[in-house]
Write a sequence for this structure.
């Protein structure tokens, strides 16, 4: 009688531990943010609006922006400068819009024209996976497709300078 | 038995109430970033700022910038 009670208790404890461990595992799997050295997800897998360019062997700047985000408005002229300066040397800039309405993005692009690639994550699938901590956020990927730098926000000339230094180093 | 029932009831109530709490992600803060979401209106704010500056020879320090979009 006592043995059966102990066995039941042990099974119950095992079940609780298994449940807790799987819950923790699931949480970590979902919450783990991308870090330097990680491969950036394949943009073709998220149903993004627009044409995803071929980035194999290129240095890529992936930027997440929204029309309502003021630092994003400041970042666009800087990215346009980078695009003009380095696109001939193998830099691809992909700006991914996360606005709920496409009309807001179109309005934004009228006042902030961009020569680089614009994609739209209408379903928020990509941004939910990447889990950016702030707007804007950008990832600089090397020719190997791995993350070499992450920029949280856009801080004017400071970020502008960092972009140029990192891109030049990666293009060498 | 009574304590268990009470505990269960509390848990059920907590589950019901806590399901209303959400973490607004940075990319979902478009509505919060709207100027209409700021505490003071622009006209009234500038008037009171003018009076404040005239009286105290100091300005600023009122609330936070933006509507909570979490930018930067």
């Amino acid at each position: 009688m006592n043995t059966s009670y102990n066995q039941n208790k042990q099974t119950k404890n095992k079940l609780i531990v298994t449940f807790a461990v799987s819950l923790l595992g699931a949480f970590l799997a979902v919450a783990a943010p991308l870090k330097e050295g990680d491969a950036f997800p394949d943009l073709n897998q998220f149903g993004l609006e627009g044409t995803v360019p071929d980035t194999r062997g290129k240095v890529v700047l992936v930027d997440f922006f929204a029309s309502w985000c003021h630092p994003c408005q400041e970042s666009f002229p800087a990215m346009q400068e980078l695009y003009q300066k380095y696109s001939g040397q193998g830099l691809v800039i992909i700006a991914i819009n996360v606005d709920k309405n496409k009309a807001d993005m179109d309005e934004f692009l009228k006042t902030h024209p961009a020569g680089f690639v614009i994609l739209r994550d209408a379903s928020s699938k990509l941004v939910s996976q990447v889990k950016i901590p702030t707007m804007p956020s950008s990832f600089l990927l090397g020719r190997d497709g791995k993350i070499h730098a992450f920029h949280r926000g856009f801080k004017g000339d400071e970020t502008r300078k960092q972009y140029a230094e990192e891109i030049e180093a990666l293009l060498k | 038995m009574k304590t268990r029932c009470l505990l269960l009831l509390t848990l059920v109530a907590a589950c019901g109430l806590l399901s209303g709490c959400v973490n607004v992600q940075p990319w979902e803060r478009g509505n919060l970033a709207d100027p209409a979401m700021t505490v003071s209106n622009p006209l009234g704010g500038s008037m009171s700022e003018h009076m404040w500056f005239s009286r105290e020879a100091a300005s600023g320090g009122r609330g936070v910038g933006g509507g909570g979009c979490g930018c930067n």
Notes: The helical segments of chain B are 2-18, 42-56.
